[in-house]
Each structure stands twice: as C-alpha cells, then as structure tokens.
C-alpha cells in the first residue's frame, strides 16, 4: 500500500492517513482508530460495494497496525 501518515494540523491528538493507491483519507484520534474513523474518498471509488469498501478499510487498518501500532492502541 502507498500510505502517508501525518499529524492533523487542525485537531490535536488526531492523525490523517492518506491511502494514495485507493485515494482514501482517514482521520482518526490517536489510540481510538476503530471508534473515531472519518473517511473521505478523494475520487469516486471503483468498487462501492460493501465488500469492496470493507476490504479497503481492512487493508488500511492492517497497514496502520503493522507500521504504527502505537497509534492504534
């Protein structure tokens, strides 16, 4: 995955993860990823099916856990 993770410049304690491959931006509060996800699509997704969206979000969660577990829990 081609992801970029940055601290939010607008909201203290929040992070912005940009999935450049799927053109998805996820904003979330540190240590509360599952509870606070705010998702924005930068383009119209190719696969809007519930399974397609769930797959992309699972991949984003896995990438975040593998690369920055300290932000998830």
Please specify the SSE layout and strand pairing.
Layout: E1 3-7, E2 14-19, E3 24-29, H1 33-36, E4 38-41, H2 50-67, H3 69-72
Short key terms for the protein model shown above:
single chain; 73 residues; four-stranded antiparallel sheet; 29% strand
Strand order of the largest sheet: 1-2-3-4
N/C terminus separation: 21 Å
Average pLDDT confidence is 92
**Which term fits the overall shape?**
globular
The main pleated sheet reads as: 4 strands, antiparallel
Q: How much helix, percentage-wise, in residues?
A: 25-40%
Structure description:
The protein is α+β, with helices and mostly antiparallel strands and 73 residues long. Helix content is 36%, strand content 29%. The chain has helices at residues 33-36, 50-67, 69-72, and strands at residues 3-7, 14-19, 24-29, 38-41. A hairpin with a 6-residue loop joins strand 1 and strand 2. The radius of gyration is 12 Å and the shape is globular.
């Amino acid at each position: 995955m081609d992801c970029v993770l940055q601290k939010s410049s607008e909201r203290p304690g929040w992070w912005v993860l940009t999935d450049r491959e799927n053109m998805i931006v996820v904003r979330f509060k540190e240590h509360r990823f599952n509870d606070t996800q705010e998702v924005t699509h930068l383009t119209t997704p190719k696969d809007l099916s519930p399974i397609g969206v769930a797959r992309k979000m699972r991949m984003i969660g896995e990438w975040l856990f593998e690369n920055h577990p300290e932000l998830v829990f």
